């Protein structure tokens, strides 16, 4: 159930969105060591977002996963910031990332919970 939500003020051309989604999905699966078939990526571009008093390119990410290893969040942060720098030219200092590991009984899927 790894889920990555990527919210940014950068406008992403429709033709570029599928590749960014695919890269993010692969990266999340690789980072967490989980099958990509369980990964969901939500992309919200062109959003109103002000960070540090400016509307320069920035992003807010949420990475949720059952059993998310807290000790590895610095590694995850570097990798996700690197992806945004490379694909959207968003500097790492303009990215916030919220990591969370919900309890299994509070995350639903397929008519049940995990």
TrEMBL record:
Its EC number is 5.3.2.1, 5.3.3.12. Keywords: Cytokine, Isomerase, Secreted. It catalyses: L-dopachrome = 5,6-dihydroxyindole-2-carboxylate; 3-phenylpyruvate = enol-phenylpyruvate. GO terms for cellular component: extracellular space. InterPro entries: Macrophage_inhib_fac, Tautomerase/MIF_sf. Pfam families: MIF. It is found in: Secreted. It is an enzyme of class 5 (isomerase). It comes from the Bacteria. One of its GO terms (molecular function) is phenylpyruvate tautomerase activity. Its main location: secreted. This is L-dopachrome isomerase.
